[in-house]
Design brief:
The chain has 9 helices and 8 strands. The chain is α/β, with parallel strands linked by helices and 275 residues long.
Length: 275
């Protein structure tokens, strides 16, 4: 999954793709690099960020969705917590709703997903983007994230969303300290009995910066390492900015593993791949 942030305040690339023309150009480049899904977001979810009106969010993303749909057959996901924005994006050609609130911020989101037949990504987050990194605490981070994802999966099914349409995301960096993120990434296999593919977003995030003591522009190598480990521990999809570099690294890891004699299967479900 290639990331296109149509925002003026993305944590990694600032407003580099805030103008629709540049966002479209970036999305098409990611498709050429082999992205299976392009994730388009118009509202920053970096720690401390505030929500924006749905009208502004639609103004940012809809031109990008419409043109991308006309020019390429890549799947499009819309990164939003607002049902109004999701509906408009789906009407413009998007295929998947990527909701970091897992349908909690807008009670209409799960019914919209059910009616539309769109794919749905449900992510764990403690608090909101504005508050999530204010001293997050867990007694059992793995158990609590797993219980949350199970509950939200059941809530989506209760609203009529087919189970097979749902992907789950443990929410790396969303209401988690460094140690929480490391525990989750090292134990992704424990989420396998939820029986849904796992999407993991690790791209250039602050936990990598804390390990390496580097800012976002210098976290590519850390991102690649985290991506390969995520795949080995059960991730089926990766949400990344540097799609080509990560995809090449995963391809090499897969080639090496495929030559192992009688090795145990990878944790998780199905053949790992990078979106």
């Amino acid at each position: 999954m290639g990331v296109v942030n149509v925002t003026p305040d993305s944590f990694f690339n600032g407003g580099l793709y805030f103008e629709p023309a540049r966002a479209i150009e970036r999305a098409l480049a990611l498709a050429t690099e082999g992205a299976d899904i392009i994730d388009i977001g118009g509202e920053s979810s970096r720690p401390g960020s505030n929500p924006i009106p749905a009208k502004e969010e639609k103004k940012r993303i809809l031109p990008v969705v419409e043109v991308l749909k006309q020019k390429n057959d890549v799947l499009i996901s819309v990164d939003t917590t607002k049902a109004e924005v999701a509906e408009a994006a789906l009407a413009a050609g998007a295929d998947i709703i990527n909701d970091i609130s897992a349908g909690r911020f807008d009670p209409r989101m799960l019914p919209v997903a059910a009616r539309s037949g769109a794919g749905l990504i449900l992510m764990h987050m403690k608090g909101t983007p504005r508050t999530m990194q204010i001293a997050p605490h867990y007694d059992d981070v793995l158990g609590e994230v797993k219980a949350f994802l199970r509950e939200r999966l059941e809530a989506a099914e209760a609203c009529g969303v087919p189970r097979e349409s749902v992907l789950l995301d443990p929410g790396i960096g969303f209401g988690k300290k460094l140690e929480h993120n490391l525990v989750l990434l090292n134990n992704l296999g424990a989420l396998a009995d939820l029986e849904r593919p796992l999407l993991v977003g690790i791209s250039r995030k602050s936990f990598i910066g804390k390990i390496l003591k580097l800012e976002a522009p210098d976290r590519l190598e850390g991102t690649i390492a985290a991506a390969v480990v995520s795949i080995l521990h059960g991730a089926s999809l990766l949400r990344v900015h540097d799609l080509q570099a990560v995809k090449r690294a995963v391809a090499v890891a897969e080639a090496i593993l495929s030559q192992g004699a009688a090795r145990p299967p990878l944790e998780g479900q199905g053949k790992p791949y990078v979106h």
